[in-house]
Amino acid sequence: MFQGVAKEGMLDRMAIGLSGLCLVHCIASAVFVAFLAAGGSFLLDPIFHEVGMSIAVVLAVFGLGRGILRHGYMMPASVGGLGLGVMLASLAIGHENGGTFYSILGVLIVALGHDLNRRAII
C-alpha cells in the first residue's frame, strides 16, 4: 500500500499540503497575536510547532529520500533539506526575534524541494 502511494508522488503532494498548512498557521498566529491575545497563545504553544516539525521531517525523509532512489537527483532533497534547516532554526530563534519570517521562508523552500522532487519523478 505504501509503495503505491509513494509511486504516485503522493508523499510530495502531502508534504506540499503540510507546507501550506504551516504557512496558514504562521500567518494566522501573527494575526491572532496582534488582534486576539487569548487565541494567539494556543497557536503559539511549542507542542504545536514540535509536532508539525516532526511530521514535516518524516514526510521529507520518505518523500525526498524515495525520490533520490527513484530518479537519482539530489537537488530536490538538498533544497528540501535547506528548507527544513531554516524551519528548525526558526524554532530556535522564536517568534519574538523574527522566527515567523524564517518559518515562512523555510516552508516555501521545503515546498519547492517537494515540487522539484514530484516533477522529477513524472
What does this structure look like?
The protein is mainly alpha-helical and 122 residues long. 88% of the residues lie in helices and 0% in strands. It has six helices and no strands. The chain has helices spanning 2-7, 10-35, 37-43, 46-71, 75-93, 99-121.
Defining traits:
122 residues, mainly alpha
Q: What do the pLDDT scores average to?
A: 81
Distance between the termini: 19 Å
Q: What is the number of domains?
A: 1
Q: Work out the radius of gyration.
A: 15 Å
Overall geometry comes to elongated
Strand/helix succession: HHHHHH
For the largest beta-sheet, the strand count, sense and barrel status come to: none
Structural class: mainly alpha
Note the total helix count.
Answer: 6
Proportion of residues in extended strands: under 5%
Portion of residues within helices? over 70%
Sequence stretches where pLDDT stays below 50 over 5 or more residues:
none
Count of strand segments = 0
Task: Produce the secondary structure layout.
Layout: H1 2-7, H2 10-35, H3 37-43, H4 46-71, H5 75-93, H6 99-121
Care to give the gist of this entry?
The chain is built from six helices and no strands. The chain has helices at 2-7, 10-35, 37-43, 46-71, 75-93, 99-121.
